[in-house]
Amino acid sequence: MVIIGGGFAGLYAARRLGKERAVEVTLVDRRNYHLFQPLLYQVATGALSPGDIAQPLRAILRRNGNTRVILGEAVELDPVARRITLSDEGTVDYDTLLVATGARHAYFGHDEWAVLAPGLKTIEDATDMRRRILLAYEAAEREADPVRRAEWMTFTVVGGGPTGVELAGALGEISRDTLRRDFRSILPSDARVLLVEALDRVLPTYPASLSQSARRQLEHLGVTVRTGTKVTAIDEGGITVAVQGDGTERTERIPTRTVLWAAGVQASSFGRKVADALGVQVDRAGRLPVGADLTLPGHPEVMVLGDLAIAMRHSGKPVPGVAPAAIQEGTYAAKSILAHLHGDTPEPFRYRDRGDVAVIGRLSGVADIRWLGRFGHMSGFLAWGMWLGVHILYLIGFANRIVVLIRWAWSFLTHGRGTRLITGEPHLPPIKRPEHL
Amino acid sequence: MVIIGGGFAGLYAARRLGKERAVEVTLVDRRNYHLFQPLLYQVATGALSPGDIAQPLRAILRRNGNTRVILGEAVELDPVARRITLSDEGTVDYDTLLVATGARHAYFGHDEWAVLAPGLKTIEDATDMRRRILLAYEAAEREADPVRRAEWMTFTVVGGGPTGVELAGALGEISRDTLRRDFRSILPSDARVLLVEALDRVLPTYPASLSQSARRQLEHLGVTVRTGTKVTAIDEGGITVAVQGDGTERTERIPTRTVLWAAGVQASSFGRKVADALGVQVDRAGRLPVGADLTLPGHPEVMVLGDLAIAMRHSGKPVPGVAPAAIQEGTYAAKSILAHLHGDTPEPFRYRDRGDVAVIGRLSGVADIRWLGRFGHMSGFLAWGMWLGVHILYLIGFANRIVVLIRWAWSFLTHGRGTRLITGEPHLPPIKRPEHL
Question: Do the Cβ atoms of B410 and A429 come within 8 Å?
Fold first, then answer.
């Protein structure tokens, strides 16, 4: 059996199946590592190194003698030959196929925004974001004109979901705490961090009271939260937004040199290939609807997992595109395959929604622990502690857990962020004019 | 006063001067971080993350209120106006100037080798090397032809100095230990690691007995050491070498897909600009000769430090291009400037050669502790322990020290290397042919 994608869904399926001698597993991924995406925003904001949140797939699965890892990109699926073609023209045959290639960020039809407002799905995305944030402060430090300086010191996060909230919180912390003493011409605390959300509240999947709490906590960190505000244009010097208010809509121009995209996701392109090959209709975000056993309708040999799938809950609501759901689906897929092997019929997939948690800077955050009902709505320190524990627990690789804990402890004690490196080209501040110091 | 370059020499000068209110310091660097270059080979071989061995200059110097850090590349020097021009056309005026822009790797006139045999001076170099090493194993795993597979599994390090020896030792360890269980079609321990050195022994600056010991320790790790062997050509499929023997020379072709360059260094290009502007003759490697007080002849306001300088020892031998020498020169420069400020004449610079130490894989290495004379020639475990202590001691940033220690302890216990990520483009194995798995 073949698994495409070593994210949460694919990796947890592979780990579970790797213990069974009765199956042969081939895991195909474009990258040679599993990435712990929920902490990617910490790489983008200089708190962690890429190596802290990524672990080589071969290392994770080395003890599974029945498992082969292939570094390759799946590009075609032949449902008759049951064969996957890779971008280098290699092929892999399957009897059972798990497709878990996930999602990437998307710009709602504005692909030209990609170069202006980077998203956050890969390590390269995160180091690119980190470079832009740090170079903006460097440019501000050397900018004599106060208007242009203010543009460099305005950071805009588009999208008020968990990633956007956590990014904005980290940016607030950077300006107030981390960089406080680092510059001589600017006060980093003068930086303006904007969080722009089209809906009427941040964290729209949370209870309304927690959205309000998150907003207050963000504002406490100096973040300006603009809800009911939709980005309509982005250029090098700023963004244009449509602001809702009292049934009217007005247009506003916001000068800002750094725009970070945390708004939309879209299924990975291989999902479309699978859908076309197997005659499945995808939804607007390119996701594939699956049955109660996570297989594609009419194709019991193909399961779709994680962010690429639309699985339905008993309540009729879709399973959300979050890491715990992907982990549960991956584990379910492995158990389901083993059940079939033993001649059993697997139970339908049942998503256990344990809740949501988001961190907002230092010692604060929001959490919604579902099984506690209203008592599970937490804010501030408690939520922060819960976030910390959950993320360390799920972070794969024992050394990584300790390293991350130490970096966090160190950052916490010193208000510092050790890995604020500007890597890749260009390294120099994005200003090009004569200047005298 | 202005310091160009935030390496060991520039940073130690800045740190020392940062405590004095009587001076104003401007530190200019192309990067926003200080890089601990002696551990760069560990990033190239997946043992450490870039963030573990780099620390933002602003963070290191944040408490020095008299110090300004500029992210910029010095490109011109006007000795009359005493002005430095940056690549973005900004300028910085100096009264006293410390030039410490270091060296980069060089190909002895074969610049076309740069794309075939990457050197190891920057973080980008190190992640490039890491990518090539890991992709070679990935390609070998998917290669059916035994001849081509052997080419992918031959790793050649050019240059038997400390960097070459440490790289080759790490490559030996990777093949024997780290990747042992990671693949299904290849045995990583079948990999061939070649260390090619034109002179008749490795570590030529060490006592001959330690060179022999280093060779034995490398061979114990499975490294083939080829001394008296000079690289004359490099292409995508291998290298051509001229082999000395019994007064004759023969040519040999070695098929190898991965060539790592640890042979030559050359002064950074800004050094030439300084030399031309101030009428100084550089040596073949582009370095500038300095007086006993490390100033340029005829220019008491300009000091040249670190790998860019040729400073002479009392014995008439040049100070070597190593980190301890750069640190001593940086500290001396700061003290010298302060002495002048107080109307004193500084003592001439005196290099304290405490010795050399190189690590060769696990629990082994060579050390030459000068003040112990012949008793200071150490091999194996003792040398390894000394290397560990010295490197942790000088690594800047307290969190980094702990993180590096933990990664090392973890690697030591598990024989693993946690940060073997293939980042940057391309991520896929460099093979392009049909294949069936």
Answer: no
